[in-house]
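Key result, reporting period 2: structure in, sequence out.
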C-alpha cells in the first residue's frame, strides 16, 4: 500500500510541477507557485508518516515465536475462523479526553431475533454490568449481536442496539428484546462520565462487521482499557480440532481491563518487569492507622491520596466471547464458558474483588438456531454432542482464551487520554528478553 501511495503521489506532484512552470508569467507567480508546492510536499510527508505509523503494527504472540498450548489454530487465529461470525469496531478518539468505543460480535449475518443462537454465560466474578445475562441463563438463547463497550455506556448502547433490532425487516411486531452488552471500565483514560457513545457509533460497529482478519489492541471497546498496568485492549485467537476429534473450531475474542501478576506461557513477565499486583505492599511496610482498601473498581481507577499507584492495582474486568461451530446446546456452552477462566488464570489474573470476569459462549450451527415454531409445534428435534465428546473443546477454549489475552497486550499501542494520563504498551524488547530467558521463544 505504501509503494502504491508513493507512486501515485510522485506522479501527481510531477504533473503539478510541470503545469505550474509551463504557465509561469512573472516572478510573483513563480514565488507563489513554489510556496504551494512546498505545502503539497509537507502534506504528502505528513500523510506518509501517518500511513507508516498505521502499517507498523505491533506483533501478536505467534509473530514473536510464542506457541500457546498443543492444538492448532484456525487459518486466521481469530474468532472469525468460526464460520459466519463477524466482528466490527467503532473507535472514539476525540480531543484529549475521549478514549472509548464499541466492538460488535455477530454470530451470523441474518436476523438474530428471528434465528436465535444457543448461548450461555458464565460468571467468574460478578462485579460488572453484563446486560442480558439473566435471560440467556434462563432460556439459553442469544437474540442480538453481542456488543462490548464502556461501563457507563451500557444503557445507551443497549437502547441503540434495540433501535437497530426493532428496525430490521421481520421484527415489526416484536414487543420484547434482550440486548446483550458487555463492558469494562475505561475511566482511567476515558471521560467515562460523558457517555459519548451515539446511535451512529453502535450502528457503524454492527453494519461494518466483517469476517476475516480482526484488528486487535487499542481499538473499539479496547481503546481505553488497561491490563496488568499496561495498555490492554481487544485480542482474539482460535483453535481447530483435528478431524478425528470432530474437526470443530473454537474462536475467542477478549476485552482486557484487569490485573494481577502477568505471566506469559508460564514466564513471570510482570515480576521481571517490576510491575505486578501487591508489589508495593510486599516491598514496603504498611503505614500505621487505617489500612482499609480504598481502591475503586475500575482499572487502574481513580486514585485518592492513599491509593497505590497504577502498577499495583488489579481491579477491572474482562469480557470473554466464545464462538464454536460444534453442535452444542446451552448446557454444554456454559461448561465451555466456564473453562475460559482457566485460560484467564494462566495469564496471572488475580480475580480481585473489583474485577468483573465474564464469559459469553454461542454455537453457530444452523440446525441449532431457535426459530419461531409453527402452530401446534411444541418440540424441536436436534442432535448435540455428548458429554464424553466435550473435553477437546474445553482445552480449545482454555488455549484460545490465554492466547487472545496475550494478543490484546502485544497488539495494544500506548495511549494518552484523560487528564494527560499515559498508559504504555507492553514493552516488546524487555518482554522478548524475559521470554528468551525462560526459553519460551528462541
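The corresponding designed sequence is given below.
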Amino acid at each position: 500500500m505504501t509503494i502504491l501511495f508513493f507512486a501515485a503521489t510522485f506522479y501527481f506532484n510531477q504533473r503539478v510541477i510541470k503545469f505550474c512552470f509551463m504557465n509561469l508569467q512573472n516572478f510573483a507567480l513563480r514565488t507563489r507557485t513554489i510556496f504551494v508546492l512546498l505545502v503539497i510536499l509537507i502534506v504528502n510527508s505528513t500523510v506518509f508518516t501517518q500511513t507508516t505509523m498505521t502499517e507498523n503494527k505491533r506483533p501478536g504472540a505467534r509473530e514473536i515465536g510464542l506457541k500457546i498450548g498443543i492444538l492448532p489454530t484456525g487459518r486466521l487465529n481469530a474468532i472469525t475462523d468460526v464460520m459466519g461470525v463477524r466482528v466490527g469496531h467503532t473507535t472514539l478518539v476525540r480531543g484529549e479526553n475521549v478514549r472509548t468505543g464499541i466492538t460488535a460480535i455477530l454470530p451470523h449475518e441474518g436476523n438474530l431475533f428471528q434465528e436465535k443462537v444457543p448461548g450461555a454465560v458464565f460468571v467468574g466474578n460478578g462485579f460488572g454490568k453484563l446486560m442480558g445475562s439473566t435471560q440467556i441463563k434462563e432460556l439459553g438463547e442469544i437474540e442480538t449481536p453481542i456488543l462490548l463497550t464502556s461501563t457507563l455506556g451500557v444503557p445507551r448502547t443497549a437502547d441503540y442496539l434495540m433501535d437497530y433490532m426493532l428496525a430490521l425487516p421481520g421484527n415489526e411486531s416484536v414487543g420484547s428484546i434482550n440486548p446483550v452488552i458487555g463492558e469494562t471500565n475505561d475511566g482511567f483514560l476515558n471521560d467515562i462520565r460523558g457517555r459519548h457513545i451515539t446511535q451512529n457509533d453502535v450502528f457503524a460497529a454492527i453494519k461494518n462487521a466483517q469476517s476475516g482478519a480482526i484488528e486487535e489492541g487499542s481499538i473499539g471497546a479496547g481503546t481505553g482499557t488497561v491490563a496488568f498496568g499496561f495498555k490492554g485492549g481487544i485480542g482474539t485467537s482460535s483453535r481447530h480440532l483435528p478431524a478425528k476429534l470432530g474437526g470443530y473450531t473454537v474462536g475467542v475474542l477478549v476485552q482486557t481491563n484487569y490485573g494481577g501478576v502477568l505471566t506469559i506461557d508460564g514466564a513471570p513477565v510482570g515480576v521481571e518487569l517490576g510491575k505486578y499486583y501487591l508489589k508495593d505492599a510486599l516491598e514496603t511496610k504498611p503505614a500505621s492507622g487505617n489500612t482499609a482498601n480504598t481502591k475503586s473498581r475500575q482499572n487502574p481507577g481513580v486514585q485518592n491520596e492513599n491509593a497505590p499507584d497504577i502498577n499495583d492495582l488489579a481491579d477491572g474486568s474482562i469480557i470473554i466471547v466464545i464462538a464454536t461451530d460444534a453442535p452444542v446446546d446451552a448446557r454444554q456452552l456454559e461448561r465451555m464458558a466456564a473453562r475460559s477462566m482457566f485460560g484467564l488464570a494462566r495469564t496471572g489474573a488475580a480475580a480481585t474483588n473489583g474485577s468483573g470476569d465474564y464469559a459469553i459462549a454461542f454455537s453457530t450451527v444452523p440446525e441449532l438456531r431457535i426459530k419461531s415454531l409453527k402452530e401446534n409445534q411444541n418440540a424441536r428435534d436436534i442432535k448435540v454432542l455428548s458429554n464424553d465428546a466435550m473435553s477437546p473443546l474445553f482445552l480449545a477454549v482454555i488455549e484460545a482464551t490465554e492466547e487472545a489475552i496475550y494478543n490484546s497486550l502485544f497488539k495494544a499501542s500506548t495511549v494518552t487520554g484523560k487528564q494527560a494520563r499515559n498508559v504504555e504498551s507492553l514493552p516488546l524488547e524487555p518482554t522478548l528478553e524475559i521470554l528468551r530467558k525462560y526459553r519460551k521463544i528462541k
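Confidence is low (pLDDT under 50) at residues 1-13, 16-25, 36-56, 290-308. Residues 2-55 form one domain. This case is discussed further under Risks and Mitigation.
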